[in-house]
Amino acid sequence: MGYFLAVCLMRYVGRSSYLCVDRNTGKMKKLKFLFKILKTTGLWHLIMGFVSFFLLSGLIICFVEPTIDNYGDALWYLFVSFTTIGYGDFAAQNIIGRAVTVVVSLYGILIVAFIPAVILSYITEVSKNHAEKSLMELLDKLERLPELSREELEEISRKVKDIKKEL
What we know:
With 167 residues, the protein is mainly alpha-helical. The protein has six helices and no strands. The protein has helices at 2-13, 29-41, 43-64, 71-82, 95-143, 150-166.
């Protein structure tokens, strides 16, 4: 389920290159980066909590709903409910089933909304830190301008031109 959510997120972001395999190593580098973000931010625990709750809720639905005969149908019903697809092939008949459905649906909607927000926040923070580090290096070199070699001066010139292009 965690892999499924990651793939859905990558499609949501609109970058199918996340699924590209590195030609040199044969590994899925960007997918690993995504999982690194999930683990670093602690979002992985939230997702695993949702998956556990989802599976447990499937058991509850399977036992309390007379119209849902097996665990697979219960999981299908919960998936259709939390994704707000609502095919209508199953419906909760009693109060316990309806309450579990509401909780799973709300929890699922929050998880789906929370994942891109956390990933975007993480990437923004990393980019900000990288920009600050680059700026500090540039300022350090500018402070010792008379001591720099011709190559270092050309590198500073190139960086300044790059910064101008970004503005």
